[in-house]
Amino acid sequence: MDFKMHEYTHAIVGKVTPALRLTDKADFNDARRQHDCYLRLLRELNVDVLEVDLAGTFPTNVVVEDIGIINHGIALLPRQLDSGEEYKMKKIREILKRELGQSIIEVADPDAKILGSDVLFTGR
User: Fold this and answer.
1) pLDDT per residue over 79-110, tens digit each?
2) First to last CA, the chain
3) Gap between the Cα atoms of 83 and 116, Å rounded
């Protein structure tokens, strides 16, 4: 496929791990197959996929859409919602800064609440 997906260049995704079976009684093989299809589609769209082991329990070890809002080299990261997300935030912060060269801005106001999934980009 020769389609270029706007300006998207990278996708950070969590790995599907065997811990999935323990936490959600989900079919690990089916989840792995679906995840592999998802990754293959991203790669067919010329997106570089960074798959990260985020530990934790399913589905939070796979889902990363709430981690931040990234646009034009700037990553706005919300305050972590609970202590269970500390590891995930740390790993994503490292990748954004070290591997992707993003400038990190962290929301410090304790009353400010925003999630990455609160934002919808529709184009120009």
Assistant:
1) 776 666 778 888 889 999 999 999 999 988 88
2) 24
3) 18
Alpha helices in 6-85 (DSSP H): 19-24, 28-44
Question: pTM of the entire structure?
Answer: 0.76
Would you state the CATH architecture of domain 10-108? 5-stranded Propeller (3.75)
Chain mean pLDDT for the chain: 80
Distance CA 87, CA 80 (A): 10
CA distance 61 to 45: 24
pLDDT in tens, 22-75: 555 667 788 889 999 999 999 998 899 999 887 765 555 667 777 888 888 899
Bridge pairing between strands 74-77 and 69-71: antiparallel
Q: Where are the domains of the chain?
A: 10-108
